[in-house]
Amino acid sequence: MSTDYKFQGWLGHDPSAADGNMKWETYEPKKWDESDIDIKVTHCGICGSDLHTLRSGWAPTNYPCCVGHEIVGHAVKVGSKAEGNIKVGDRVGVGAQSSSCLKPDCEQCTTSTENHCQVANVNTYDSKYPDGSKSYGGYADYWRGPSHFVFKIPDQIASEDAAPMLCGGVTLYSPLKRNGCGPGKKVGIIGLGGLGHFGVLYAKALGAEKVVAISRKAEKKDDALKLGADAYIATDSDPDWPTHHAQSLDLLICTVSSPNMPLEAYLQLLRVRGAFVQVGAPEDRMPAFSAFALIAKGATVGGSAIGSPAEIREMLALTARKGIKPWVQARPLREANSAVVEMGEGKARF
Hints:
The protein is α/β, with parallel strands linked by helices and 350 residues long. It has helices at residues 48-54, 159-178, 194-205, 221-227, 241-244, 263-268, 292-295, 309-322, 336-344; strands at residues 8-11, 23-26, 36-44, 71-78, 91-94, 97-99, 122-123, 142-146, 150-152, 186-190, 210-215, 231-234, 249-254, 270-278, 300-303. The strands form four sheets. It has a six-stranded parallel β-sheet. Strands 8-3-4-5-9 form a five-stranded antiparallel β-sheet. Strands 1-2 form a two-stranded antiparallel ribbon.
């Protein structure tokens, strides 16, 4: 394949980019390294992180910024020191992380937890590589980055399905797997959007005894059951839901990113030694709760961020083996501005 190509994409220049004001422009990718891979992008998922970053919601963004970290395409250039046995023409993907220190004395990078590297964790966009190069995402024609974070996509998974798995999917798969989701476990998924629907799919695929979807409104109940949930709790429909479902779940994964969520009520649903894991990332602080909500039952509250390269490969293998299919809506790249606006307005169901 030809390497005569330019890096062009939808760039945000200020917070108004989240209102549909990204500009299609050329940019300079990271400096080429022989451990890198160039990808001709065919698909890129829209993640809530894209909106937070475009509008400088979590922190000031280093504009110009090209977002998108659920990238699938074909390798068009492969460095001589690239990992993963990837060849030009292979269908590959990249998630929300594109580099870490990978040093032999890094506890995280040597134990397959690169996603928590505390030395040099590089996000796929709006971040800096160790050489000072800026990272740009997948709302673009091409992407360049380290091969350690590039994954072959199994033939059984369609590109439009694989893309959102690389951030949204693994963000749920990782805490489910690490917290023992499987036979005999009763699992709750709070929120039934893009992240939450992956939670239901993967909890079922991992063999949970019971999967309960939890949302404010009753309108998503049918969708939850079609995805494989065994039960559904609509919190707005039952003012006594914390009491009616108390001590019923071993594991709760929360995808909600609202500072006003009823956290203490959610904790009532946990059984003794249960675990609550937060993956939704609000721009404000999480709500306060009484320590006795944990002490009385020996429960734990934790967090999780995306997943490691090893977990992403595990997830893709499970997806291919089980025939897991997420619910996606495909849009052409030229409609990125309107798609981002609709995402912000909550029109994207999953």
